[in-house]
Amino acid sequence: MPLTRATVRNLYYGSGNRSRLFHLALTALDVAAIVYFLATVRIEHVSFYRVIDLAIFVVFFLELAARFWIDDDRKWFFFRPSTIADVVVLASLVVPLLVENLGFLRVLRTLRFIRVFRISGSFRHLLPIRKRQEDVFTATLNLLVFVFVVTSTVWVLEARVNPDINNWIDALYFTVATLTTTGYGDITLHDTIGRLLTIFIMIFGVALFLRLAQAIFRPAKVHYTCKSCGLMVHDPDASHCKHCGAVVHIETEGDW
Known about the structure:
With 256 residues, this protein is mostly helical. It folds into three domains: 1-127, Four Helix Bundle (Hemerythrin (Met), subunit A) (Up-down Bundle); 131-220, Helix Hairpins (Orthogonal Bundle); 221-256, no CATH class. 58% of the residues lie in helices and 2% in strands. The protein is built from eight helices and two strands; from the N terminus they run ααααααααββ. Strands 1-2 form a two-stranded antiparallel ribbon.
């Protein structure tokens, strides 16, 4: 199959099985890179690791170039948040190859985490998930990715400066204890950046964590458009629209 703009565009934006598998392949690449970033946080990068950094840079650069090639509005391509994050990740990979003592740039590679959310759409099409379960599945996946992102950020920022965090599991323990407001206090972030990160987790992270958890454990709503008022979300066992009182005919599978 010739590598044309239309072909590449279909891989990125199509809805067929080939496009979905392509998205999963990209996600697998992102996950592999993230695992590498996390595994080498406390390792001084010698020549071997710099070669790996360069190889990852080439792959990510080609992927970014492909998205630029197929974009319809190239003038604004580099002003989009996702593109800016990718450019920062590329810089964090190549600058330490040219200038010494810039290992702190590895922190910026955590921005690649935002790309992992793309796995949600790919898996939703590939797995046999019923419509009623789709919102719960998406919320569960987003919650897991959110906890992973926060934990990995704690690990990357604190691994070299905090004696209480010796591995990724320690960072996960601190993150879950903070997000659930348990706060045992046996692991704390002492430095200024760590304290700012803790404040961010407590203010924004806890609220988002509770919202995602609520979406999982609260009974899911059913998507059905009321013919009278247009309300699109109803309780699974609803017989009348809560907005206008009209009778609604929601199809069920006999579970209610």
